[in-house]
Amino acid sequence: MSAQLVVGILVGLWVLVRVVGRQITGSLVTQRQLVLMPAILLVLGVLSLSSTIHGASTGELAFLGLDCVVLIGVGFARGASIRLERRDDGLFQKGTGATLALWLLTIALRVGASFGSAAIWPHGTLSRAALALTIGLTIAAQNAMIYRRALSLDIPFAVERA
Predict the structure, then answer these.
(1) DSSP string, 45-87
(2) Beta bridge partners of 86
(3) Residue 48, class by beta-carbon neighbours within 10 Å (0-12 exposed, 13-18 middle, 19+ buried)?
(4) C-alpha to C-alpha distance for 138 and 31, rounded to whole angstroms
(5) How is residue 29 annotated by DSSP?
(6) Considering the entire predicted model, what is its pTM?
(7) Is the separation of the CB atoms in 161 and 95 below 8 Å?
(8) Helices (H), the chain
(9) What's the CA gap between 153 and 33, in Å, rounded?
(10) Contact 90, 29 (CB under 8 A)
């Protein structure tokens, strides 16, 4: 197992524990929170892909594109499934059973795509290198949906704590 894969798995687990945990238990939502983690993951993902994309086949790139489109769709669905409430401190989010089921679907899709890609392109590294990118995309889509819903419900975001 490569060091890049181990780091990717650890980052993925950390993100999932942090994001899913906050959504299931409920938390205040700030604009910074909606942008920061997906932005970091997207940058890490692009940097990781930059070293492998030149050696990828057209099939691998198409497979990654399809994976990204599906994960973005699931991210939008998760964002729509989260309950948003107005609290004294601002916007509060709490995941539902559907949110948890959609997270499990997201994980299953990502694991399935990794195994599928490895089976089709055994020497390809694109799918493993795209882990941070795909997680960042699905969280960004989810957060975009939360942002849009909060604006349409006219619920102010929580204020950053010092």
Answers:
(1) HHHHHHTTGGG--HHHHHHHHHHHHHHHHHHHHHHHHSEEEEE
(2) 91
(3) buried
(4) 17
(5) -
(6) 0.88
(7) no
(8) 3-25, 31-50, 58-81, 97-120, 126-129, 131-152
(9) 19
(10) yes
- Which tokens belong to 54? 């030149």
Q: In what order do the strands lie in the sheet with 83-87?
A: 27-28, 90-94, 83-87
Query: pLDDT digits over 102-143, tens only?
Result: 999 998 998 898 888 888 887 777 877 888 899 999 999 999
Angle at 111 between CA 114 and CA 119, to 5 degrees: 35
Task: Give Cα 47 distance to the centre of its chain.
Answer: 17
pLDDT single digits (tens) 25-75? 899 999 999 999 899 989 988 998 888 888 888 989 999 999 999 999 999
